[in-house]
Design a protein that fits this description.
The protein has a nine-stranded mixed β-sheet with strand order 1-2-3-15-4-16-20-18-19, sandwiched between helices. Strands 13-14-22-21-17 form a five-stranded mixed β-sheet. A three-stranded antiparallel β-sheet has the order 5-6-9. It is α/β, with parallel strands linked by helices and about 475 residues long. The protein folds into two domains: about 290 residues, Aminopeptidase (3-Layer(aba) Sandwich); about 160 residues, Aminopeptidase i, Domain 2 (Roll). It has ten helices and 22 strands. Its EC number is 3.4.11.21. Its cofactor is Zn(2+). Belongs to the peptidase M18 family.
Length: about 475
């Protein structure tokens, strides 16, 4: 029988081809669970025992539930993750024509395994800004779009034309990564005629003419999905997406094969844990703190943006929540020192074909539970105190836990953990579920670890305030 948590994850993944869609799906689930949406542009009037959410740029989302016994200055218990994954994003000018083919100009986002994007059936998803007419005046709307049909492909060069390709597959990211959209001949034959001339002609009414920057065929496909005319598209943020669905697979149905497991798997598990730990009337009855999930954009490129973990999003949330219950600003530093962050980002499972890439005493395995990440040089924010709390919760619930340290002769990656720990001053532990093929267009993880992660995060939300009261360090 399939694990219901893993089945739910697959549904979340298939609904979330981009960070925008992931936030939209998270918001949909939170609203069903009774979370009220706030606007950062407005004043907040919060109440103990209530549940709230807000988004920034529609690519970062923060949700929190306030304990009925919360008072200003108490701690906030957070699981943080990220909504973005390495991908190919469409350039501001995508119109590329070469060798009788229409291609789409893309730029690499993050540190992807770009060779895995060749010979995949690709679609497009993201958001568009659309011009509209309402009550006789011009206005604009923000819409998410998703073309699910495969419309593009990045073809490899035949081995007959590159005999050394199996020794080393080398490609130029500028020249060789452009997806083929159509042949020029077919595109010309299928071009619709505008009422007053060709669709390629410039606009005479002063409006932005996107046909000069993009193939009209591409705009027609996007407009059809957005429910507008091509010339009503003012701008967009779109990316190429693999059309293959996420699935539970393997001979024993023990794996999940999917894109974007890094880091939508952790985003989902933390989101579901928050929702389920605050679902009943009594869930927050004895809670003295605040339970929060923060899913950030732009982790894969350093988090330095208005909606990344390097922005004031976290501090703004902590401050505004505290200030909603007291005007005493001295309580904010107290609240920060009483708070705790679980930075949840997928971890590297031991690869059976490359076992020498792992330190021999730190080899996380699939099905082995969440991995606590350590790095003496602070590439991860874990220390003995923060890891103790996380292990103690695992031990109480008989949940497996593993440890990871990168080899001394290899560089170590990082997460939002050190960014938030240093930027906000919050106690932090770095963890993640083990996976293979990280940053490939198609990754894999274990079904059991999805369940372990969800249960671990849920127990954290339910019990951390009581556990925290039992250990004092700075006295």
């Amino acid at each position: 029988m399939e694990n219901p948590v893993a089945v739910d994850l697959v549904e979340f993944l298939n609904a979330s081809p981009t960070a925008f869609h992931a936030v939209d799906e998270a918001k949909r689930r939170l609203k069903i669970a009774g979370y009220e949406q706030l606007s950062e542009r407005e004043d907040w009037k919060l109440e103990a025992g209530k549940k709230y959410l807000f988004t920034r740029n529609h690519s970062t989302i923060v949700a929190f539930a306030i304990g009925r016994k919360y008072v200003a200055g108490n701690g906030i218990y957070i699981v943080g993750a990220h909504t973005d994954s390495p991908c190919l994003k469409l350039k501001p000018v995508t119109k590329v024509s070469k060798g009788g083919c229409l291609e789409v100009g893309v730029q690499t986002y993050g540190g992807g395994l770009w060779h895995t994007w060749f010979d995949r059936d690709l679609a497009i998803a993201g958001r568009v800004i659309i011009r509209e007419q309402k009550d006789g005046s011009e206005s604009y709307s923000h819409r998410l779009v998703r073309i699910e049909e495969p419309i593009m492909r990045i073809p490899t060069l035949a081995i007959h034309l590159d005999r050394e390709v199996n020794d080393a597959f080398k490609f130029n990211k500028q020249s060789h990564l452009a997806p083929v959209l159509a042949t020029a001949v077919k595109a010309e034959l299928n071009k619709p005629a505008a009422e007053n001339g060709s669709v390629e002609k410039g606009s005479s009414d002063g409006k932005t003419n996107t046909n000069q920057k993009h193939h009209s065929l591409l705009l027609q496909l996007i407009a059809a999905e957005a429910g507008c005319e091509p010339n009503d598209i003012c701008d967009f943020e779109l990316q190429a997406c693999d059309t293959q669905k996420s699935i539970i697979a393997g001979a024993l149905k023990e794996f999940i094969f999917s894109g974007r497991l890094d880091n939508l798997c952790m985003s989902f598990c933390s989101l579901k844990a928050l929702i389920d730990s605050t679902s009943s009337e009594s869930s927050l009855q004895d809670e003295t703190g605040i339970r929060m999930v923060a899913l950030f954009d732009h982790e894969e490129v350093g988090s330095d943006s208005a909606q990344g973990a390097g922005s004031p999003v976290m501090f703004d949330a902590l401050s505004r929540i505290t200030n909603s219950f007291s005007s005493d600003t001295k309580l904010i530093p107290k609240a920060i020192q009483r708070s705790y962050l679980v930075s949840a980002d997928m971890a590297h499972a031991l690869h059976p074909n490359y076992m020498d890439k792992h330190e021999e005493n730190h080899q996380p395995k699939m099905h082995g539970g969440l991995v606590i990440k350590h790095n003496a040089n602070q590439r991860y924010a874990t220390n003995a105190v923060t890891s103790f709390f996380f292990r103690e919760i695992a031990a109480k619930h008989k949940l497996p836990v593993q440890d990871f340290v990168v080899r001394n002769d290899m560089a170590c990656g990082s997460t939002i953990g050190p960014i938030l720990a240093s930027g906000v001053g919050i106690r932090t532990v770095d963890v993640g579920a083990p996976q293979l093929s990280m940053h490939s267009i198609r990754e894999m993880c274990a079904v059991d670890d999805v369940k372990h992660s969800y249960e671990h995060f849920k127990a954290f939300f339910q019990e951390f305030s009581h556990l925290d009261a039992k250990l004092t360090v700075d006295i």
